[in-house]
Hints:
The protein is an alpha+beta fold.
Amino acid sequence: QADDGDGELDVIFDPRAATTSAEAVIDPSRVRGRSAAGHVRVGASPEGSARALRVAVSRAVAELVLAGRDHTAPTWWREPTSLWIAARVADAAPELADAVASRFDLPETGVVTPDRSLAAGNLALITALDDEELEASLVATSWKRLAERAWTGDPVAARDAVAGASLDVTGLSLDGLLLRAALVRVASGPIPNRVGLDLASLPVNGRDLDLPVAPLGAALVRIRPDATRPDATRLDVDVPDGAWTLEMLVEREQGWERLRLARDADGRVEILVPWSDYRQAVMIALRHGSAAGSSRIALSARAADALDPYALSAFGGRRTPSGTVEI
């Protein structure tokens, strides 16, 4: 459906280009409903590598093929899926790594974004599955549903909803898959260059995250021992509403461990990290896609007393109808 009617996909090369590049060009006269046709324009610089040229052409061809399915598909899903397809036929490891790194250097920006470079990093949602068959099923199902969606309601909201709902083939919601991608990114390292807060000097009193977190965005908070009080760090987190999920990864010598954080009835979380057992910790604060807008969480941190218990802990409580408190 993406060709111009001659049964072939047209690729036009410019051997005089200064840089290696490729782009899918849609022909406005060849748009039929959601399907569009066009060609791929390639700049083939003599100084460019053959690998980079293969990746660029593969990605542009993938974009053109996807436009044949639905040229109105959202940028936040088109960019990562075209990159995923390109990686199936070309050695795109550097491009994949760069895309994911860019995504998690700006994690507070939501997944649903018109920015092409950030959107490409949503590839992390696919590769976090770590199952090629499931990844392929996700890509195929999402584009089939996008092409077949009804022409009703707000077209932008409808396409975003269809793309997001297609993730149900993975057994995870979009929220859940984003959390999984963030956990994989931190545990596989290196930790992103930019975090919402880096807590290494204590005390910290009621400090908000540096930037608000958008729906389907996340904040990473890195916790390290204070050189002057290296025993333990106690962290108090104030969560303003229920549209958050908080989890923590803590690093031992053997690797990372995952801890689910429970909030109390007032939306607070208390965490104790003993540095005799752990090297560092990273808290992931995920803003749900259903949230009304951007928000921040507030944190306080202090050195723990030498008599505090030496076990990583997260406490939550609720009052029962009988008046007792469950921990």
